[in-house]
Amino acid sequence: xxxxxxxxxxxxxxxxxxxxxxxxxxxxxxxxxxxVDDESKDNTMxxxxxxxxxxxxxxxxxxxxxxxxxxxxxxxxxxxxxxxxGDYIQFVDDDDWLYPNAVQAKADYAxxxxxxxxxxxxxxxxxxxxxxxxxxxxxxxxxxxMVEHLLRN
Length: 153
Fold this sequence. Notes:
single chain; alpha/beta; 4-stranded parallel sheet; two-stranded antiparallel ribbon
């Protein structure tokens, strides 16, 4: 099962490498990484291209990076989604990072629940290297109510 991870970037040269490293360090493979730069004004794409030259693409990890005219985060995500080939898609912002088993846990859940179309997870929020909050999801019992609940909350 191919997982596509779409990273949207805008002026985060100082942070994007941490996000990309966390994706490279995932225990799960295969991963398709799509990096969408929203026409950054800093050297974000230089950092991205340098990173892409370090961990080489392999049979189970591929990456592409594209710059598009500035269109705000939702448009960048949609542009990445249009390039995706994965069975499942995960969005990661340029200032986020994933725990090493994050994708594996979601892939395992998807395999155990083949009718599942959406997987959400808890988020931990950090500032200056220290956790200060967690999302603690409360979800409805009836799966039919899931999408409405997530959109409303």
